[in-house]
Amino acid sequence: MGEFKLFDAEYKFLDIIWELEPINSTELTKVCLRKLGWKKSTTYTMIRKLSERGFLKNENATVTALVKREQVQKYESEALLEKAFDNSLPAFLAAFLQDNKLSQQEAEELKEMIEEATK
Predict the structure, then answer these.
(1) How far is CA 49 from CA 34, 46, 74, 89, in A?
(2) DSSP notation for 94-106
(3) Whole-structure pTM over 0.85, yes or no?
(4) Which of 33, 55, 53, 52 is closest to 42 using CA atoms?
(5) Helix or strand (DSSP H, E) at 65
(6) 65 has which bridge partners?
(7) For the chain, which domains are there?
(8) CA-to-CA distance for 14 and 7, rounded, in angstroms?
(9) Where are the alpha helices (DSSP H) in 1-119?
(10) For residue range 78-91, what is the model confidence (pLDDT) as tens digits?
(11) Residue 44 in contact with residue 29, Cβ under 8 Å?
């Protein structure tokens, strides 16, 4: 699977699974009711759909993710960069930093990432 496009509800659902996996599907329905307000049928529909798309595995009533959170985050960030900023990381950072301030620690972490990426 090359594409990790998820709708917001799907991402929130996967986020729960990434946090708790492996998780029993019955327990997952309880967590989804509490955190998302979903009925049992909604949770089971989401399990089925994301399993069909290759995101999840539901075996013996145990749900696990087949993709990592980092894979989805990488895909989503690259898609946003391409769609909204014409693949320009400096344009993205300029837009992001326009109304946000970085802490000294965040600035240092970014400097280290940039240095590592340019090696």
Answers:
(1) 21, 5, 22, 33
(2) HHHHTS----HHH
(3) no
(4) 33
(5) strand 62-65
(6) 56
(7) 8-69 (1.10.10.10)
(8) 11
(9) 8-20, 25-36, 40-52, 69-85, 89-97, 104-117
(10) 999 999 999 999 99
(11) yes
